């Protein structure tokens, strides 16, 4: 048996079985003596998979390397505190490139007051980088993927699709927005890293839940329209499956959303859209099959 035959999620299920762990979220949650939760997450960027050297500046790569891990913390409603960086480089990499990489990383770290406290270097044929981030969240304000309820609104921040045209290198993690939503009573939350449909399936994978989306309410980017050349169905497909949007997808009761919405508008420029409802899973209902977003294998 090879990895390509079972895919990314098949491999994850095997690893969970080997470790006797049923892990649902991208971020580990560890109760701390302080009464708060410690959050720990890690993400990896690999040349040729997550970026192309000729289409990204070293500053953008440094920014993105930290941003993808911060997005996981945001999806838990947490506050990032510290990060360590493991960087693999070809021997002929210019030192100037490495300096610019760290400039981009530090720029984002300063914005969210994240301490860069260590890391590791290694040699390889291609550039790759793993960033682990430690954060924290209140015990009652740590938001998991599980928790959605029948009747909840399904909501998303920002706009979706077309990130391949450049936004995946420059996006701003929704740290403040995630903390606000955690205080606002959302039931479940995830960041849209692999595509809206795929990540929505993760959000509603537990219990007898399904979803009904209103495709007319899916917020799309100008980049998605550009890639689709104005075709509505293709534009929608980009918004539903492209991935690397790193927006927050969450569920919340209609009553709580109506309380939260005017406060959101006063605090953030980022739009928030109601795109559907959580429903009880009908008999015979199946989640969309095939590729609904990005998968590594």
Tally of domains = 2
Largest beta-sheet characterization: 5 strands, mixed
Q: Give the integer mean of the pLDDT values.
A: 92
Helical fraction:
25-40%
CATH H-tier superfamily of the largest domain: PurM-like, N-terminal domain
Measured by DSSP, the beta-strand proportion falls in 15-25%
Q: Which stretches are poorly predicted, pLDDT < 50 over at least 5 residues?
A: none
Number of helices: 8
Shape: globular
Look up the CATH topology of the largest domain. 60s Ribosomal Protein L30, Chain: A
Q: Output the strand order for the largest sheet.
A: 1-2-5-3-4
List keywords for this structure.
60s Ribosomal Protein L30, Chain: A, 297 residues, 10 strands, globular
Structure characterization notes:
The chain is α+β, with helices and mostly antiparallel strands and 297 residues long. It is 34% helix and 25% strand. The chain has helices spanning 3-19, 58-75, 95-111, 175-183, 196-203, 222-228, 232-241, 254-267, and strands at 28-31, 36-46, 79-89, 115-123, 128-138, 153-157, 188-191, 209-213, 248-252, 272-280. The strands form two sheets. It has a five-stranded mixed beta sheet with strand order 1-2-5-3-4, covered by helices on one side.
Summed up, what is this model?
The chain has eight helices and ten strands. The chain has helices at 3-19, 58-75, 95-111, 175-183, 196-203, 222-228, 232-241, 254-267, and strands at 28-31, 36-46, 79-89, 115-123, 128-138, 153-157, 188-191, 209-213, 248-252, 272-280.
List the helices and strands and how they pair.
Elements: H1 3-19, E1 28-31, E2 36-46, H2 58-75, E3 79-89, H3 95-111, E4 115-123, E5 128-138, E6 153-157, H4 175-183, E7 188-191, H5 196-203, E8 209-213, H6 222-228, H7 232-241, E9 248-252, H8 254-267, E10 272-280
Parallel strand pairs: 3-4
Antiparallel strand pairs: 1-2, 2-5, 3-5, 6-9, 6-10, 7-9, 8-10
